Amino acid sequence: AAASGAGQMRSGASARHNYPSWRLVGVSNAITAVVILCMSLLQVVRRDIAPLCTLGVILVNIITKALKIALWRLAPPAIWRRPAESSRDVERDPGFPSSHTTIMTFIAAYFAFYLRAMCGWSVVEAVLFAAVPSVGMAAARICDEDHTPAQTVGGVFVGAALAKLWALSVTALLGADALARGEPAPWAMVLVVFAVGLPMFVWPLPVKVARHMQRSAARRLHLASGPGGGAGAGDEAAGAPAGVGAR
Predict the structure, then answer these.
(1) Is the Cα torsion angle 114, 118, 123, 124 positive or negative in sign?
(2) pLDDT at 14
(3) Residue 228 per-residue DSSP state
(4) pLDDT digit string, tens, across residues 45-96
(5) What are the φ/ψ torsions at residue 49 (nearest 5 degrees)?
(6) Which end of the chain is more exposed for a tag (fewer CB within 10 A), N or C?
(7) How many other CB atoms are there within 10 angstroms of residue 87's CB atom?
(8) Is the bond into 97 cis (omega within 30 degrees of 0)?
(9) pTM, to two decimals
(10) How far apart are CA 245 and CA 247, in angstroms?
(11) How far apart are CA 222 and CA 230, in angstroms?
């Protein structure tokens, strides 16, 4: 019995090691928090690009949610259903395209358009600048088990297309050299963007983090219980993510 108990303890320790603590919060949630902080600072120090970009992000967020609902109603579940391990409700919270990946790609691509127009970057430099954060967020969403690879790829394409459309809209409304002029946006626009954008992206974040932590803790407990941990404990832990997603 003592040997069996020691084996279970070693198994639990190994399982906890295999499910590291840094995954509890969610990689994409941590990246999102950093992006929100950086974009908030840029509203003040780079009024020539950040407010217009954030205004575009607000519109992209609305468009992405509408696209998700449309595909949820019209497309086969294989397209929009999230992975079974997701902390979201896989039946009622569609995942195509990935909102995190779409928004990250939009921000990166819009800044790439700006740097190309303002600083004369080459196409290769601009593409690489936009690709790194986009691919990073896509990988994070897959790592967090909240999206399939296809859903994140969809997010990259949708985000890039909307960034191009937004850049064309800005130049159409403000002039062909709008991005190259580097003209600071009025403070009134900065305040409006803050008032609308911060609540839209900051308020849901603690809920997402708590939901992911609860799902991750349940997964860790399930792994730690091992084959000898008792069917009740394992079943309860395994069932916890579905309950979390439903809430």
Answers:
(1) negative
(2) 47
(3) T
(4) 988 889 999 999 999 999 999 999 999 999 999 999 999 988 888 888 999 9
(5) -140, -40
(6) N
(7) 26
(8) yes
(9) 0.80
(10) 5
(11) 10
Hey, what are 17's tokens? 């090691």
Separation between Cα atoms, residue 118 and residue 191, nearest integer Å? 25
CA distance 152 to 86: 14
**Side chain identity at residue 80, one-letter code:** W
Indicate the DSSP class of residue 148. Answer: -
Where do runs of H (alpha helix) occur along 120-203?
Answer: 123-143, 149-174, 178-181, 187-202
CB atoms within 10 A of CB 148: 21
Block residue for tokens 């091992």:
226
Query: What phi and psi values does residue 103 have, to the nearest 5 degrees?
Result: -70, -40
The residue written with tokens 């130049």 in the block is: 171
Place of tokens 């009740």: 232
**Alpha carbons 44 and 11: distance in angstroms, whole number:** 51
CA distance 58 to 169: 15
Expressed in percent and rounded to 5, the helix, strand and coil fractions of the chain are: 80, 0, 20
